[in-house]
Amino acid sequence: MNTTLLNDNIPAPGRPRADAVLTVENLTVVYEADTPVTAVRDASLTLHRGEVLGLAGESGCGKTTLAYAINRLHRPPARIASGRVTFHDGGGDDVDVLALTDAELRAFRWEKLSMVFQGAMNALNPVTTVRAQLRDTLLAHRPGLSRAKVRERSEEVLRRVGVDPRRLGSYPHELSGGMRQRVMIAMAMLLQPQVMILDEPTTALDVVVQREILSEIMRLRDELDFAVIFITHDLPLLLEISDRIAVMLAGEIVELGAADLLYRHARHPYTRKLLGSFPSLSGARGAFIRSGVDETALPDGTIEERA
Ligand SMILES: Nc1ncnc2c1ncn2[C@@H]1O[C@H](COP(=O)(O)OP(=O)(O)OP(=O)(O)O)[C@@H](O)[C@H]1O
């Protein structure tokens, strides 16, 4: 593997050295079409407990395929040709995700690791209320939960993502796109998973709603300390929200490192090209979503005071 590791072992600024919650080793995923396509090639990464790992790269480079494979959500003709995915449970057990049976996988998803995928807001069941969808997911994993607890938890997660709990009785078509996406994020955090994979979670929404939802996710992450793999081709956004960033090119992770180091000292020519293709990156590193950092490093290594 020719990944350029940019001090991958150095904890991101302002965050303690974290232990691993997910390890992906040499993962290769092939679409067995007439002409087979190797969409992910020999990908390796470690996700630390509580961190935000950004996954960047142009359309078609394999980001979604990698995310689906990590969660075993890939469908034929996609096939995991080789590699390992290990979930390091907070309780101390290591889970070999690729070896889980279907029943074990159903128990694993949502509970340990959840995913919000592109266009997820359209994944809500159109003929079922928000209340029923949250309740079904809760009871599938916690069958003994009382009605009162189900209601309490459902109201709590909605409140956390900024949706009025009175919306529990609504059907998806009665909610705006932003609200539906918030409900999906509420669903993803319902069982307090240790890892959330967010694949372009807000791309379909207008910029203001996008920013609101992202701020909310980052606030929740700081509060609840789950780890996030955040996938987007929006590199400026990733620089704002990520502790570390992995850059994919044609199925391979070509660079992986702390976000600010990658910003200042990108090693791979493709990362440099990607950084150069966003004019906004000639200014300060994003200040909109993250707070608490007073200075911002520019690509030439100088420091700029934040306005
Ligand atoms: N069902 C399929 N059959 C064959 N090839 C596929 C299939 N789905 C995806 N691919 C190919 O796999 C590669 C990776 O696609 P993938 O959707 O993972 O990329 P991506 O980086 O997530 O793109 P985007 O940002 O546009 O979602 C692409 O070359 C794509 O054409």
TrEMBL record:
InterPro entries reported in the protein's UniProt record: AAA+_ATPase, ABC_Ni/Peptide_Import, ABC_transporter-like_ATP-bd, ABC_transporter-like_CS, Oligopep_ABC_C, P-loop_NTPase
A GO molecular function held by the record: ATP binding
A UniProt-annotated Pfam family: oligo_HPY
Principal location: membrane
Protein keywords: ATP-binding, Cell inner membrane, Cell membrane, Membrane, Nucleotide-binding, Translocase, Transport
Top-level taxon: Bacteria
Compartment list: Cell membrane
Transmembrane portions of the chain: none
Bilayer topology annotation: Peripheral membrane protein
Residues covered by the ABC transporter domain: 22-275
Family assignment from sequence similarity: Belongs to the ABC transporter superfamily.
Protein name per UniProt: ABC transporter ATP-binding protein
Taxonomic source organism: Micromonospora humida
